[in-house]
Design a protein that fits this description.
The protein has one domain: Rossmann fold (3-Layer(aba) Sandwich), CATH 3.40.50.300. The chain contains 8 helices and 10 strands. The strands form 2 sheets. The chain has a 6-stranded mixed beta sheet with strand order 6-7-8-3-9-10, with helices on both faces. A 4-stranded antiparallel beta sheet has the order 2-1-4-5, covered by helices on one side.
Length: 241
C-alpha cells in the first residue's frame, strides 16, 4: 500500500502541499483532481523522491517508496522518449540498465493489451501518433511489473476518441496486472469512470476524499461540488453517474 502521511512540501517560501494524507491499497486506483496549480504534479514528484517533504513521510508497504520502483506515465508522450532512439530501445533501456531482461512473451502480451503492433516499437517517436506514443509510454511503465504506477495527466494530449480508448486500456491493464495506480487529472469524468476513490486537491490542500460513486452523486466540499457541476455542464460527466 502507498501511504502518504501528513506530507507538506515547500517551494521557496511558499507551501506547495500542506498536510496531505492519502493511501492507495494494492490493485486500486486513486484519482487526484483539481485545477492547474493545485499541486497535483508536485505530489507525484514527492512520491518519486524528486522533492523532499519538509514534513511527513511517504511509504510503500512500510518501506521507502523507492523500494517498489514506481513507474511514471508522463503527460506529453513524445517528449518522454529520446527522439533518436527506437521506441523499443527506449522501452527496454531501463530494464537493461538494471542488468535484467524481459521475456518476449511479456512484451507481446502487453503490446496486445495496448493494441500495439510489434512493428511500431521499431519506429522513432516522431514516426508514431500521439495516441500510439502514449500507449508505448504505458508499455514502458508496465514492462517491469511495478506494483505502483503514477499517471500524470495521461489523457490530456489526446483527442476525445483516443482519450476514451486509452482510459479503458489503462483500467483493463490495471485489473489484469494488479498494480496500484495514482492518476492526477483535471478530467472529472475520467476520474469518476475509472478510479476507485477521488481526492480533491485545491491550493495544496485536500478538500475531500470519497469513493468515485459518492463524489459523482454528492461531493462533500464546496470546491468538489464546483468541479463536479462544471464537468456536468461541459458534458464530461453524466448526471446519472
Amino acid at each position: 500500500m502507498l501511504k502518504i502521511d501528513q506530507v507538506s512540501v515547500r517551494r521557496g517560501s511558499s507551501v506547495a502541499l500542506e498536510d496531505i494524507s492519502l493511501s492507495i491499497p494494492h490493485a486500486k486506483t486513486l484519482a487526484v483532481v483539481g485545477e492547474s496549480g493545485a499541486g497535483k504534479s508536485t505530489l507525484i514528484a514527492a512520491i518519486l523522491g524528486l522533492i523532499k517533504p519538509w514534513k511527513g513521510k511517504i511509504t510503500w508497504a512500510g518501506a521507502a517508496v523507492s523500494s517498489c520502483r514506481p513507474a511514471l506515465v508522463m503527460q506529453e508522450p513524445r517528449s518522454a522518449f529520446n527522439p533518436v532512439l527506437s521506441l523499443r530501445r527506449s522501452v527496454l533501456e531501463p530494464i537493461s540498465a538494471q542488468g535484467t531482461s524481459v521475456p518476449g512473451e511479456r512484451i507481446k502480451r502487453l503490446c496486445d493489451g495496448l493494441e500495439l503492433s510489434a512493428e511500431i516499437l521499431d519506429r522513432r517517436p516522431s514516426e508514431v501518433s500521439i495516441g500510439q506514443a502514449q500507449r508505448v509510454g504505458i508499455l514502458r511503465a508496465l514492462i517491469a511489473a511495478p506494483p505502483l504506477v503514477l499517471f500524470d495527466e495521461p489523457l490530456s494530449a489526446l483527442d476525445a476518441v483516443t482519450q476514451k480508448h486509452t482510459a479503458k486500456l489503462i483500467t483493463d491493464l490495471r485489473s489484469e496486472e494488479g498494480f496500484a495506480a495514482l492518476i492526477v487529472t483535471h478530467d472529472i469524468g475520467y476520474a469518476v469512470a475509472h478510479a476507485d476513490e477521488i481526492a480533491v486537491l485545491k491550493s495544496g490542500r485536500i478538500e475531500e476524499v470519497a469513493t468515485a460513486r459518492s463524489f459523482a452523486a454528492s461531493p462533500q466540499s464546496s470546491y468538489g461540488q464546483t468541479l463536479r457541476d462544471a464537468a456536468i455542464s461541459l458534458g464530461a460527466l453524466d448526471t446519472a453517474a
